UniProtKB/TrEMBL annotation:
Catalysed reactions listed for this entry: propane + NADH + O2 + H(+) = propan-2-ol + NAD(+) + H2O
Residue ranges constituting the YHS domain according to the UniProt record: 420-451
Documented EC number(s): 1.14.13.227
Keyword presence, Membrane: no
Pfam families noted in UniProt: Phenol_Hydrox, YHS
Protein name: propane 2-monooxygenase
Signal sequence coordinates: none
Organism expressing this protein natively: Carbonactinospora thermoautotrophica
Molecular function terms, GO-annotated: monooxygenase activity
InterPro entries with a match to the protein in the record: Ferritin-like_SF (IPR009078), Phenol_Hydrox (IPR003430), RNR-like (IPR012348), YHS_dom (IPR007029)
Keywords carried by this UniProt record: Monooxygenase, Oxidoreductase
Length: 504
């Protein structure tokens, strides 16, 4: 067999495009699965990925990654490291497994769609590697929590969550269906790989791996590091896709797709990562606040991308997105902790005296805004009345992001002009939204979203029986043993400030 240098055969094998003769372009690339947005086929052939790899190189790399990460899993599984982890950190990783493990597998469907319906051979080649990546990520993130079952039965929510009607699972499922399982190849490349992965998860995984190592969770750190290196490669499908659209006069398409998915990604990101960074991670191991992380990593990344691609900042950037950095995840944390029986992890209140000082330093005014709510909660706990901190009703959820509407908390904190949700009457039905951008996303394509029933819509439609809080929790798949409780049995409510701090 001839032995050619890599440079002599690589481009020929990765980028073999051809003109169709037996079928039409529309038959080979149906619009629902591969919208060209009017760009001629030959123009798509200029698609050029920045990271190139051969199949043998790919297999070699993946074998080495799996050997390392499964070795760590085997050693840690025989130790007491998980039992010794901070309860707040356990909440963070259980929330992560439930929300992310199965969607990683679903992402393999998106990659496979691009592997078949991508508009250029080089793109299809790269997406095939992405399909293998995401299959691996789904497998490894269901296998690792499986090994924890004897120590934490709720680790089975890694596999279970996306098959339930739990509100957080519905929010994740709604987002990921919109982003990749019900999306065409071009939109998926921009919304999944560029906006979500390059913009959020790739950087998030870097931070989570470092945080896991800091708190002593060697297994989760190795797992996330292994996944992140794959994400960094296949996430680069978005950049050449945007470049082709912009060079062929369709910057408007790329802009709209980015604007749509950045906002949706931001809200789920704030729910998962905002709470973990500012409330669940042990105080002594916090290197950044969530806002600092967003400014230093996420926002800088996007600003560089907007400049390099010739795109504009999303229309809601200044008026809605940047202000939410100061309050949105604090409001979500308050709500998730209050409605803790409705989640599969144990939320850590995370508002001890020292933690409140840290929150005040990172978010000036926190004690006078969100701290007031925690004052009341803490007082009820100290008076032996924790039942007063539990919910008796359902939260209103947004008809777009499916996350509870927290505008009253934002209003009380002085960040919104009104506590009321954003409403839209459309074809005889009233829809409620948590924000102006969520309403805008719905209005851009109402046929795509109007038929979905939120958990509250299902309750009002009589689908949840009995129509009580107990009936709703059962409908969400939560047994009494699985319902969330405070992670540290309210220890934060009984902390006092150090004497020196009180004297000052």
């Amino acid at each position: 067999m001839p032995r050619l240098a890599r440079s002599e055969w690589y481009d020929l094998t990765r980028d073999m495009n051809w003109k169709l003769s037996y079928v039409t372009e529309e038959e080979a690339w149906p619009e629902d699965l591969s919208n060209s947005y009017g760009v001629p086929a030959e123009r798509w052939w200029t698609w050029d990925e920045p990271y190139k790899i051969t199949y043998s190189e790919y297999v070699h790399n993946q074998v080495n990654k799996d050997t390392g990460v499964y070795s760590v899993n085997s050693v840690v599984g025989r130790s007491k490291l998980f039992e010794q982890l901070d309860p707040g950190w356990k909440a963070a990783i259980l929330a992560h497994y439930g929300a992310i493990a199965i969607p990683e597998y679903l992402a393999s469907i998106a990659e496979a769609r691009m592997g078949r319906f991508g508009r250029a051979a080089a793109w299809r080649n790269m997406a095939t590697f992405g399909t293998l990546d995401e299959t691996r990520h789904g497998q490894i993130q269901t296998y690792f929590p499986y090994g924890l079952l004897a120590k934490e039965p709720r680790a089975d929510w890694a596999h279970k969550a996306l098959h339930t009607n739990e509100w957080g699972a519905i929010a994740a499922r709604h987002l990921f269906d919109d982003m990749f399982t019900a999306n065409d190849a071009v939109s998926t490349a921009i919304q999944l790989t560029s906006t979500f992965e390059t913009g959020f998860t790739n950087l998030q995984f870097l931070g989570m791996a470092a945080d896991a190592m800091e708190v002593g969770d060697l297994e989760f750190s190795a797992l996330i590091s292994s996944i992140q290196t794959d994400e960094a490669r296949h996430a680069q499908q978005g950049e050449p896709t945007i470049k082709v659209l912009v060079e062929n006069g369709r910057a408007d398409v790329a802009q709209k797709l980015v604007d749509h998915m950045f906002w949706r990604s931001w809200h789920v990101f704030a729910l998962l990562t905002g709470l973990s960074m500012d409330y669940y991670t042990p105080l002594e191991h916090r290197s950044h606040s969530f806002k600092e992380f967003m400014n230093e990593w996420i926002i800088k990344q996007f600003m560089d991308q907007f400049r390099d691609f010739g795109l504009e900042k999303p229309w809601y950037w200044e008026e809605h997105f940047l202000p939410e950095l100061d309050w949105y995840h604090h409001a979500l944390h308050l709500g998730v902790w209050y409605w803790r029986p409705t989640v599969w992890w144990n939320p850590d209140g995370g508002v001890s005296a020292e933690e409140r000082d840290w929150l005040e330093e990172k978010y000036p005014g926190w004690n006078d805004t969100f701290g007031k709510h925690w004052d009341v909660i803490s007082d009820n706990v100290r008076r032996g009345k924790p039942e007063l901190t539990l919910p008796e009703t359902f939260p209103m959820v947004c008809n777009m992001c499916q996350i509870p509407v927290v505008t009253p908390a934002g209003y009380n904190a002085g960040h919104l002009a009104s506590p009321a949700p954003f409403l839209l009457d459309y074809q005889g039905r009233r829809y409620s939204f948590c924000s102006e951008p969520c309403r805008w996303i719905f209005e851009q394509n109402p046929a795509r979203f109007q038929g979905h029933l939120s958990i509250v819509d299902q309750f009002l439609a009589g689908k949840i029986q009995p129509p009580t809080m107990e009936g709703a929790l059962a409908y969400m798949g939560l047994s009494p043993e699985e319902m969330g409780q405070d992670a540290v049995n309210y220890a934060w409510a009984f902390t006092t400030r150090p004497a020196a701090a009180v004297a000052s």
